[in-house]
Amino acid sequence: MWPYTDPRSSGAMAFDAWMAPRDSAGALVRRQRQRLEALFKAAGASAFYRRRFERHGATLEAQPSVGKQTLMDHFGDWVCDRRLSLSALRDFIADPARIGLAFAGEFSVWESSGSSGVPAIFVQDSAAMAIYDTLEALRRPGGPSWQRWMDPFCLSERMAFVGATSGHFASTVSVERLRRVMPGMAQRLRGFDFLDPTPVLVDALNRWRPSVLATYPSAALLLAEEAAAGRLQIAPREILTGGEALSDAVREIVSRQFGCPVRASYGASEFLTLGTECAHGHLHLNSDWVLLEPVDLDGRPVPAGEPGATTLLTNLANHVQPLIRYDLGDRVCFDPAPCTCGSRLPVIAVQGRVDDSLLLPDTRGCSVRLLPLALTTVLEDDAGVFDFQLVQQDGHSLSLTIAESGDRAALLHVRRVLLDYLRQQGVDAVELHVHRGEPAVHGRSGKRPRVVALHATTTP
Q1: Global pTM?
Q2: Is 403 exposed, middle or buried, given 0-12, 13-18 or 19+ CB atoms closer than 10 A?
Q3: Which domains are delineated in the chain?
Q4: Is pLDDT of 9 > 70?
């Protein structure tokens, strides 16, 4: 059963999602052109974009890039529905009990991380969510096509999502929304908080016994270590990862430990299902519904086969909060050669931010793995800082540099929040230095990492 009110539209959408990768290159271009025209027509209801169209012209090529800070500064003019006031949306996402509920009875709402120093709020209407759900269901990695058609939402599986379940983040909102709108999904899909101490998380997963596990690569590595130690005793048939870069080494470790395939996907708060792996292990962009343009530092397009300095995103599905040539920040490279799997959707490689896991000793002298996304979630949600870098200097020492302004009391609050979290994880003999300044460590991806292990860490 599809979670939409109109079965006819749902069936047509599903057929189109199945057909697009198999259609001709010309048919894919026609889809993009028609959907781009519809997006520009819808964006005419946005005062922000009307001004840009008048100034630059109403074509994609004429539009300058736009960043998250600019859009959030003009939020009231950006959105196309007057019910979407920023203050009301912030009140909505401040309540964890509303995760997965519809704002104003109609809109799905989530917040992005502040990885660029600017947290944002993204709103999708039911039509956009239907598109994301369809792409997720019918193009998810792995499994024969007949199985995806017979059971697109894995209702025969027992699924576990391991992530930040206490905030209005895109993955968590999507999971809770499906549990609310689809009969039977609540009994087959559960979220588990990676902020919980590892023994608590392991015990909960042991009791749930998932057949499909969806999480971040760093969390999958932690769970593989727990399984290798005999504490985690689950036997998933498939592990789906996203949110971080999945290295070949981590894929091999996790796959060998659990004896199942580990597959990667690519998504963002700005578009949930940007790409998924095919059976050949290549990442295909869902270019029938989203456009990505790798550009250099001057905003000029780069040729296929070369990564850009950043990537501009145009969301063809979201008409209530248009994103046109939005600076995504990721470095994306298009493969000039078609994939041997037969899909017409382009193959891409993504060089996103790669943060480190930290290994710190607990009271017994054993190593505790701290996940980078868990650490950044604590600092953002509980401490209220977004532009920072946490560096492990040695086996017992951490240095937190915060680029945002604030007084000494604010620094002490951040320090207290982080130390409290470390103690909850069993780490209470760490030396933590907190100061203001400009983070100094930069990564190969072009993005500044927010969690860095200068001290050597190990993997199983």
Answers
A1: 0.84
A2: middle
A3: 7-351 (3.40.50.12780), 358-453 (3.30.300.30)
A4: no
